[in-house]
Design brief:
The protein is of the alpha/beta class. It is built from ten helices and ten strands.
Length: 242
């Protein structure tokens, strides 16, 4: 579903991605982690078509993001770190924004779609509320509903649990998994939250200094004892026990 082939990218003379290659299978939830400055945000921007890599190829369902980013983006839904809702629009207008720009949907169908999406993300009776009236977790759910409205084949999540309390973070993790299980979407999650990734990931890809240091299962990841991964897991364990 997603094929990243020998992707490299640089800013000026600094290479932030170096020969990145991996594939994500249909229906899989893959998590990209990394050390600070490891390149995970740059990689997400390349996959989403927001940034063109200096070298390499990225395919989404066989469509080249590098050569035809506009077409590739029709297959992608992006859930931003801070939801990126329009402050002046209410929940209904935010969720249906892309659908209305695309056109061809009647008002009655819009209402059915809106109700279905709100139910899917566990929200009810908030259509008229503004983003400022919502909690952080609710804004993230509205952002997911907006992405789902365009019926993507792949969902990209940018730090979905960032800034959330543990209970809300857990509910967002469950929503990511439930959305995949219900609709069968392929999902790519960029996260630094170790607790979260073990709840959602089928596979973990860890970037270090612009290169893939690890690509495997959560069980294999947890067993790493040394290097940046071992340090990260050890820190997460100590924080859990504190």
């Amino acid at each position: 579903m997603i094929d990243v082939q020998q992707v490299s990218h640089r800013f000026d003379e600094k290479w932030v991605l170096k020969d990145i290659t991996f594939s994500i299978q249909p229906g899989e939830i893959a998590v990209i982690m990394g050390s600070s400055g490891g390149g995970k945000t740059t990689l997400l921007k390349c996959i989403s078509g927001l940034l063109t890599p200096s070298k390499g190829e990225i395919l989404v369902d066989g469509v080249s993001v590098v050569k035809d980013a506009e077409l590739a983006r029709t297959k992608l839904g992006l859930v931003f770190q801070y939801a990126a809702l329009f402050d002046s629009l209410n929940v209904e207008e935010n969720i249906l924004f892309g659908l209305r720009r695309k056109g061809g949907v009647s008002r009655s169908d819009e209402k059915q779609i809106l109700n279905r999406l709100l139910e899917q993300v566990g929200l009810e009776d908030i259509e008229t509320k503004l983003p400022s009236e919502l909690s952080g977790g609710m804004r993230k759910r509205v952002g997911l509903a907006r992405a789902l409205a365009m019926e993507p084949q792949v969902l990209l999540y940018d730090e979905p649990t960032s800034g959330l309390d543990p209970v809300t973070a857990y509910s967002i993790d469950r929503l990511i998994v439930d959305t995949r299980d219900r609709i069968g979407l392929t999902s790519l999650v960029v996260s630094h939250d170790v607790t979260s990734i073990f709840r959602v990931a089928d596979r973990i890809i860890f970037l270090h200094q612009g290169e893939i240091l690890f690509n495997g299962s959560p069980v294999e990841f947890r067993e790493k004892q040394d290097g940046p991964i071992g340090e990260l897991i050890g820190k997460a364990r100590s924080e859990t026990l504190a």
